[in-house]
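Appendix B. Extra example for self-study. Work through it before the problem class; the solution is given directly after the inputs so you can check yourself.
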Amino acid sequence: MKYQSRSRGVTTSTPRTAPGLHDLLARRRSPRGFAADRPVDDETLRTLLEAARWAPSAGNSQPWRFGVARRGEPAFEALGAALAAGNQVWARKAAALLLLAAQTRDEAGRPRRWAVYDTGQAAAHLTVQAEAEGLSVHQMGGFDPAAAAEVFALPADLEPLVVLAVGWHDPEADLPEPYASRERAPRVRLPLAELVLAPADDVLPLSA
Ligand SMILES: Cc1cc2nc3c(=O)[nH]c(=O)nc-3n(C[C@H](O)[C@H](O)[C@H](O)COP(=O)(O)O)c2cc1C
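Solution. Structure tokens for the complete assembly:
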């Protein structure tokens, strides 16, 4: 498979993707520069959550739950303070912070084996919808789960997994190092040949 550069006229952060990849997936990235003065309106935020809502899940169990906090709200400050220091530097400028938690047990207390997998799919749906809205999402595992759970008074059966910074990307945002360099760095991925186990080259050629 031949890889082509889609970099004509765009920043160095635009990845080299295979032809045919949907543009929403090709251009999506997790930025750190957010426009601190630009809020996200209720309808758009609802659309992002709606995208997550329609993600597939094992037995249609839909084991994800969201805590939603907009900039200026007390919950935003509290969730921002629960982030790892290196994430606080930039994520507190996002328009919204969402806590994503997984219901890892069913009503009978039995483990939901795919809860974390399903919740990740909901996040993936949300990120692609955000890209379609012109918004950016940066997911973060670097936060204090207990403090984040407290912000939304999560019941014990909900396990906080990630915080999502949602906002309008500002390529001119003033970021300290090392975040400024990371913002300019190209997106990279392992080659398909490394991701597909025992690739049968004669059946599906994976490299040019
Ligand atoms: C579960 C998860 C946890 C992450 N945690 C952090 C984090 O704490 N801080 C951070 O800056 N980025 C975090 N990221 C973002 C990844 O580093 C990023 O998605 C990856 O480098 C690929 O870059 P891209 O999304 O721009 O393609 C996380 C992403 C995921 C999916």
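Self-check: The chain is about 30% helix and 15% strand. If your reasoning did not lead you there, revisit section 3.
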